[in-house]
Design a protein that fits this description.
Two copies of one chain form a homodimer. By secondary structure, the first copy, chain A, is mostly helical. Helices cover 72% and strands 1% of the residues of chain A. In chain A, helix 13 crosses helix 16 and helix 16 runs antiparallel to helix 17.
């Protein structure tokens, strides 16, 4: 499935904006931030490596354009949200004890926990700074956008707290899991489109429609992510098959299985998730077998479909340009079907 | 030495503002934040306990009033800076491995590192939110103040990185140590007065004078803190004599001693600071003896005096009301002489 144009056409502007935002000097702190972004290697030398998809800033710029504005006007907001997303990754890596990201040591693993905490904090501040230090927006707009950003951050952190709590709990329902990812992942994705729309137009209905479209995309994005973490193809995702099972993440498929499995299947699942030792291939096969028996993949697909349908339906109340409408539908289809 | 009126007259407004800012619901996250602020005990029951001095918000409101404004107008900024300060304390406790604050277990020690990181992150977001979600300020002013806050945060985090780096290094000079605390502690104190002045008036000279006054107070505050950490009286500070030596902090007295000591004194110091075992009373006495031989206390006093002189001198270029001027001088004298 081809990457929609939305993810490529703004890319040079996004990359330039990000680099400018982290161009704060030669201190150790900024070197850690540039390393995390994949621009420096472990010895501090510039890299040629590709970065991630930069989904959030692309959605922000797209929403601005789709709402009738000039995409570039939303660049400070787009840069801000990508930095805030990266703040959350740096702190997530500490909390999950992850030692690698994109095949490189994580910041905390390379520089220790204390500097990892600092690097995340700094990424956060610089995100807000990228937005409010810009002179391109009218103060009233900058303030409105800044409010959306901080509210999204607060929700994201609440979601992160819930996620940590869920990992400790014996059982979590599918509904409460979806509410959690709506905060942890959804809030920033919704915020991306919401901020872009506020910058792109003044029509409350259009702004609200784009926000709701973003809310559905956010859930869709994470549900698909959870599916790829279990059934993704290694050559496409860059992660081993069943990687979330290996990590014993309680992602959507496992939450569904723990909620619905009974008898021997349930016992096998609970036993494997409780094991002290690392899981082997037989464990992964066993879990995948339980999921297959329960039809978990079909359930996840149905949840994703529902959010995909909702996403474009949210736009039915407003008049977008034919191109914008088509691109919204492309975005939804891509997030629904992506295999990486 | 009596607490200046500046620290008492705004207190009810500050406390009410802080409680309102953290009144975000019944979730586990907000319970952690209220616990950190000293409003809940470990079982989640409301406490009667006294909080800290709340220096930063008081300075912010005072600066607004001294610059000719109405103190209450700066309340969102005052609340913001106190929450940001508390964010830094929560993360500092993780980084320093401190298990107690104000005689209670620290957040990370009570709920684990992961939740400690989250609680700090949330405090940070809510600080920004307290400022920009308020309707009391004109958008242009809110944005200007928000810029000051994020710049101060960025500097504070840079200072924190330097501090961690210094703790690993064999030698640190007094001058670079002062530059570090100017960032780590000074930036927020300077920001407090700067924000208040921007809200209180539109005169660039007054704003700049208050900012510079704040810069000097920030250094003065930390130098005095470092002195109290070594020579403070336990009954006044609430910490054991030589508490910073016990913790082997490389605070100003130790930085000065390591920079100037020679021969046997230097060897004793280096040896004690390198010990694996906890320090005993004889070690503390030994370090205090080296400091006495070097006249370190007098050197620290001279540094504090210099900043105190500079602080009020920064105000000479502007016309403040006689009351405001007198209160500025009282503030300086209090921060110079305080024994707690």
């Amino acid at each position: 499935m081809a990457l929609p144009d939305v993810f490529t056409r703004y890319r040079p502007a996004i990359d330039a904006g990000l680099r400018q935002a982290l161009d704060g000097g030669a201190s150790d702190l900024y070197a850690m931030l540039r390393y995390h972004m994949g621009w420096l290697d472990e010895e501090g030398r510039p890299t040629e490596g590709a970065s991630g998809k930069a989904v959030r800033p692309a959605l922000c710029l797209f929403a601005c354009e789709a709402a009738g504005g000039v995409a570039e006007q939303a660049l400070p907001a787009a840069v801000a949200i990508e930095l805030v997303h990266n703040f959350s990754l740096i702190h997530d890596d500490i909390q999950d004890g992850d030692t690698e990201r994109h095949h490189h040591p994580t910041v905390w693993y390379r520089w220790g926990h204390s500097h990892g905490v600092n690097a995340g904090d700094a990424m956060f501040v610089l995100g807000h700074q990228a937005l409010i230090a810009s002179d391109g927006l009218a103060p009233r707009t900058a303030l409105a956008v800044s409010r959306i950003l901080t509210r999204a951050c607060a929700e994201m952190i609440e979601g992160q707290v819930l996620d940590l709590t869920f990992e400790q709990r014996a059982s979590v329902g599918v509904e409460e899991y979806l509410r959690m990812i709506g905060k942890k992942t959804g809030a920033l994705l919704e915020g991306s489109l919401h901020m872009g729309a506020v910058i792109g137009c003044e029509d409350p209905a259009t702004i609200e429609a784009m926000r709701c479209f973003g809310n559905a995309l956010g859930l869709l994005f994470q549900v698909r992510d959870d599916m790829l973490g279990v059934w993704g193809v290694a050559e496409r995702t860059g992660k081993p098959v069943g990687s979330d099972i290996h990590r014993r993440k309680k992602s959507l498929p496992i939450v569904h299985a723990l909620e619905t499995a009974e008898g021997a299947g349930r016992e096998r699942l609970v036993e494997i998730y409780r094991k002290d030792a690392p899981l082997d291939e037989a464990d992964i096969e066993s879990v995948l077998g339980v999921l297959a028996d329960l039809g978990t993949q079909q359930v996840c697909e149905a949840i994703a479909d529902k959010q995909a349908d909702r996403s474009v339906a949210e736009l039915d109340t407003v008049e977008l340009s034919p191109k914008a409408r088509r691109e919204c539908e492309e975005l939804t289809q891509f997030l629904l079907k992506r295999d990486y």
